[in-house]
Specification:
The structure is a homotrimer.
Chain A: H1 4-11, H2 18-23, E1 27-32, E2 40-46, E3 49-55, E4 61-65, E5 79-81, E6 84-86, E7 93-94, E8 100-102, E9 120-121, E10 123-126, E11 129-133, H3 146-149, E12 153-162, H4 167-173, H5 178-193, E13 205-213, E14 216-223, H6 232-235, E15 238-241, E16 245-248, E17 254-262, E18 265-275, E19 287-290, H7 305-314, H8 332-349, H9 361-364, H10 408-412
Parallel strand pairs in A: 12-19
Antiparallel strand pairs in A: 1-11, 2-3, 3-4, 4-9, 5-6, 6-7, 7-8, 10-11, 12-18, 13-14, 14-15, 15-16, 16-17, 17-18
């Protein structure tokens, strides 16, 4: 049971709210690289702010407020130029830092433009994602997680828009026990109803545990039948990278970003990888596709692990009422996480860096190896699939939506 | 002219409102039997409450609140078991009375579940409809209207979702005079505009009358050309079964339930019947189909009697402003009905049973014969159709939407 | 920068608001003649009022409130009769002035109907448009602009629904400078991105000027390369007909009406004309079609002059925040226009006729010649099209949407 005011403190993402100010201390993905091609502008929305993300003809990225300061027309319809982004309406141009540097209709000697600027934010690209930072300067380093920085991985990104606040899905990640029902018994029940064989071996949790780690929380589980002396899921586990990124998988490492679009919307970027084969040309970016959380008829997708996670969170409502909830002993990860969030909000209010903000290049270079079990019962195609070997050549085939695959090289493979 | 506060008193359906507390004293259909198959859960909404209606593998029905008490996930995605409904998220199970009877993640000796329960309501099935009761206990009897209880009728149910409060359509039923225009002259005008022959003989009302009856209000009319000594429409009429069910028809009796979904939505279940032929196997349930109130292009259906009723009510707005209305002498049925509603609300506030609540099994068994005229100018396919004999073999063909017929036996017939 | 309260004063269109009372002093188009055929009723919405526009079998037009005074059913489903409009529900009939003149269900000698009336408004037809006047009586004259009144023009009307307040598009018209970017450089950029040749010669404004004129504001521009002694765009220009009608074009004159539907919606009627050829039968009305402001995929149309104007206004938001805007020297037309609007609102509040209200038949008969340049760089198909001569036979082909053309004579041409 969480009082309503604490629930708001944790869930609000707007500028000036306690939670929003915490979330602004981190870099967030705002697009897959392939979504913003050269000489293109796209609309992005992050923590309630409407922004124009552009890439110039030579490939430079920029991010600024969507409205021109002049008349309020949208810079999403602007012209990306090497010196900045130009409004389509009267040609006012903003440099990448948001300073107006040209007002074509004004007299040649006018200094008016010097008094005009709009919000602009740093943007960086890594591992096929475009990241933005909306917080106070100086910006921390963009974390070079191994999954993003390794040059031997083929990556693809599934994109899911969900009409919910970000917190429920983060809490879902701190709740190992739901694997017992949601991802095994329930999915088997769904399969049975569809006249299909079970997809998963049902195994019970004997123990769950959580350890604080420098950059987040390690989540561990001991499953029925596993040896506590050797089980990596118990000895190592895998982390939530604070504030809310999921890292998972051994040979085929994964990241799951859950980006707060506004108080009641998130975009989930699910990055899947496979090691490239010897001699295979490496994809520089990431292919991407939509992973819808509902079917065309409006019913929720409950046929995949991701789908059931989304169902369990979406059906709680936009911002779940936590005053009525009844937490049990298996929810101690959620309680721990809420306490950690509160503490980090406190730190930001005291002017300190919260957990997971990285400023030391030595820590970040060449990359940050994420501790995680090499093999988990539950990885995206691991223990969840009875006949996983059929996916050997293309382990992501089960999850990937066929439409919207834009990487032709991959599509052929 | 109805003051706004009285209008609210009569139209609000939420728990704790005067009108909502009156409506909670009755059983309401929440589904056609065929909509909730074995081992299935469906979402229903009744008087503003979101509920999960389920049927177990062995056929038992249950109805409870949609949200699991634990984390708020939806039980509509739950697993119906013989001992209750199980949440898909962590497997908490609720017995049919809403008491939590299993919390699999908790220690074996935990008594936590004993403190957890959610709202649950009685549900019964009759004549191919599933009825729910959301009021105070003990629940009254589910009325065994002859149309529901007879075993010699073939039944089908048309389902219409309307974005309006329930009262306008109830008042429409207490307004016999609109037959003169809406269902005859206007429909003939619509036909003429479409280049078709008139569908109806236009006859004027000479008299209208209303009689209080034990279980509702009898509505009577004397039409031009009819003999007041023999006309059953004048001598008998047909009732509104309080609070708002329409009963109609002789050889092919009908019921019309208008179910308050919330303040601004209703579902109309229009039950049509025909006597089965000798030796014909009887359908146990009801086939069903949608009767949309608009066409695919968004224009309202004004080609059928039901369609014109819906048009006349929908166009009054979600909750019509009654302070501006101008009632005439033909509206005395509406005035009578509003007074009756107010009196019944008063009774409920005094702790008494309102009109139409049946608690005596002798009154309800084996069934309640509804008094009604054997033959009316205006029944669903009667006087309204110039060439009604073409429908002799399948008298409902005119109204039934061809799509969504799910009873294969019927579809072939 | 416009204070929020002044912004509201200028943008609100409801009855009883300062801006709404000003706008009610003018005739507004509510339909193209062809939209309301004989014996037809259509729904129209003007300045927040929902109305029923009907035409009787003999061709007479009428306009009245949408709700019947009796029970509130919609007169849009009414029956248009020579003596007025009849409600479909109980047959109450209203004469064209809104007075109820028949209540069929009431006793023959009832005087009840004499006490019943609903709002009704004058309506007139000219040049293929239906105009309504919702202000205080006596109504001023419907302006007989030459484009409407000439009998030697073939007319067609493009209809665009925009989800914005009316003011932004009016201000766009008082902003000549945006031609430099929005309609030339930006459109050429769009063409380049699509791999197409530029559509426009890019020329710079050397001067812009505004002159008050009896019926509005003349807008003038001197373009680079033009001779100020001979340029009609500089010497004459073209007007905004107060309050907000665009008049344009020489041989092929145009009108653009931007009709305030409510605070956040407008309908733009773009009337295009070409002189009929000798001996060609004249169309009495106007053919019409939709000019959508977005493509089927939801992206805004930025491939035409009209489309880019709509984009520049729609992206400012429903009612743009003007406290944050930064006006420059090229925006002096906007500042002038806002001052004029404020002055005219003041006049209405003093009980005077505002600018553009015409009451003298001599001024209005046989028509009002609109002063405008004979040939402009920027007319609908003029200077904007590199190879305009390809449109010689059908100069509107570029703009016209092919669908929804309902004038068969034109369609063949």
């Amino acid at each position: 049971m969480l009082p309503q005011d604490t629930n708001e403190r944790l869930t609000q993402v707007g500028r000036g709210t306690p939670g929003g100010d915490l979330l602004r201390r981190y870099w967030w993905p705002v697009a897959v690289s392939g979504e913003v091609e050269n000489e293109t502008v796209i609309a992005v929305r992050l923590m309630g702010e409407d922004l124009a993300l552009y890439r110039t003809e030579s490939g430079k990225l920029g991010l600024m407020a969507q409205r021109c300061a002049h008349r309020g027309a949208s810079l999403v319809y602007g012209i990306p130029e090497e010196d900045g982004l130009r409004c389509p309406y009267h040609g006012w141009r903003y440099s990448p830092d948001g300073q107006c540097n040209e007002t074509p209709g004004e007299p040649a000697d006018s200094t008016f433009k010097e008094k005009v600027c709009i919000a602009a934010y740093p943007v960086q690209e890594l591992g096929g994602l475009v990241f933005a930072y909306l917080g106070p300067m100086p910006a921390p380093l963009l974390p070079r997680w191994d999954v993003l920085a390794r040059d031997d991985l083929k990556r693809e990104v599934g994109i899911t828009h969900l009409p919910i606040n970000w917190l429920a899905l983060a809490e879902n990640q701190m709740d190992p026990y739901h694997l017992d029902y949601l991802h095994t018994r329930y999915m088997n029940y769904v399969m049975k109803k569809q006249g299909k064989a079970p997809v998963s071996t049902e195994r019970r949790h004997l123990e769950i545990a959580f350890d604080m780690w420098e950059l987040g929380i390690m989540k561990r589980r001991l499953l029925e039948g596993d040896d506590p002396e050797t089980s990596e899921e118990w000895l190592v586990g895998h982390p939530l990278l604070f504030p809310n990124t999921l890292a998972l998988g051994g040979e085929r490492p994964r990241l799951g970003y859950r980006v707060p679009v506004d108080d009641t919307n998130i975009i989930v970027y699910s990055m899947f990888t496979v090691p490239g084969k010897d001699g295979e040309p490496r994809s520089q970016g990431s292919s991407f596709y939509e992973i819808p959380y509902k079917h065309g008829d409006g019913s929720l997708n409950v046929e995949t692990v991701l789908g059931t996670d989304f169902m369990a969170c979406v059906t709680q409502g936009e911002i779940p009422d936590r005053e009525g909830e009844r937490l049990g002993t298996t929810d101690r990860g959620i309680i721990l996480y809420r306490r950690l969030l509160n503490e980090q909000i406190d730190k930001v209010e005291r002017g300190e860096d919260p957990m997971g903000v990285i400023r030391d290049p030595a820590r970040n270079t060449p990359m940050i190896s994420i501790p995680r079990e090499r093999d988990a019962f539950f990885t995206h195609t691991g223990g969840m699939v009875a006949n996983a070997n059929q996916f050997e050549d293309d382990p992501l085939a089960m999850i990937r939506a066929k439409k919207d695959v834009r990487d032709p090289a991959h599509a052929k493979g």
